[in-house]
Amino acid sequence: MECLQAAVFAADPLTNAGLVALLHEFGGITVLEGELVRQAEVAFIVTRTVDTETLSLLSAVTRATTAHIVLVVGKLRESDLPVLLSSRIHRVLDHATLSSIDLVEAAFAARRADDVLRRYDEAQRAARLRDQYHFVNDDAEERHRFTPREIAVLRLLADGVSTHEVATRLSFSVRTVRNIIAQMMTRVGLTNRSHAVARAIRLQAI
Questions:
Q1: Residues of the chain with pLDDT under 50
Q2: Conformation bin of residue 125: beta by default, left when phi > 0, alpha when psi is -120 to 50
Q3: Cβ of 64: how many Cβ atoms within 10 Å?
Q4: For residue 124, what are the CA distances in angstroms to 53, 73, 121, 131?
Q5: In what order do the strands lie in the sheet with 4-10?
Q6: Domain residue limits, the chain
Q7: CA distances from residue 141 to 77, 78, 119, 145, 146 in whole angstroms, order as listed
Q8: Residues 6+ apart with CB under 8 A from 4
Q9: What is the structure's pLDDT at 144?
Q10: Do residues 71 and 89 lie in contact, with contact meaning Cβ atoms separated by under 8 Å?
Q11: Are the C-beta atoms of residues 69 and 37 closer than 8 Å to each other?
């Protein structure tokens, strides 16, 4: 049986253990730990988003190993793409829909990444990554983000407070509160106040 040596990097110990367990379901992959990770052919990096901690980890992995990287991530923006292209990231997997089969297929595909790097230019590699994962458009994300003033209004609406009471508590005029709500619903694409509150809760904004 073809055997592959892999390493797993995740900030959360439980996430790390879960990914290792998924990989162990397949007998052809050995998960290395400690100093042995330097020998890994493929490195799995698990993160929610590409933040400063992720960038530091990517830099450390690329310096310490020659492994090709499989990124398991919750969300990626278009502005993250240059980082991915410069970090030996060969595959991107969605953390929310991850399975052991996805991991195994990505691992063996990543091990053959040298051939891809030789044959594909940067634009073609970017297109491959976009095929693997839905990147959030930065402008679209900004349009759908609630402002601090909108969040303050939404928190009160979630408590069942009337428009007049919202205005009183926030020292706004009633007209200002109505304008805030109307502009928010138009920009974010909401149908009513209940929809706005539900969206804010789902995005953990309130």
A1: none
A2: alpha
A3: 14
A4: 28, 21, 5, 11
A5: 29-31, 4-10, 42-47, 68-73, 89-94
A6: 4-137, 144-202
A7: 9, 10, 33, 6, 10
A8: 28, 29, 30, 41, 42, 107, 108, 111
A9: 62
A10: yes
A11: no
Looking at the DSSP bridge assignments, the partners of residue 93 are 72
The amino acid sitting at 178 is R
Q: What is the full DSSP assignment across 59-108?
A: HHHHHH---EEEEEES--BGGGHHHHHTTTEEEEEEGGG--HHHHHHHHH
Under CATH, domain 4-137 is a member of which superfamily? Response regulator (3.40.50.2300)
pTM of the shown model: 0.64
Kindly report the CATH class assigned to 144-202: mainly alpha
- Rounded Cα distance, 78 and 98, in Å: 21
Match 């990287």 to its residue by tokens.
69
pLDDT at 138: 57
The structure tokens 């007049």 sit at 164
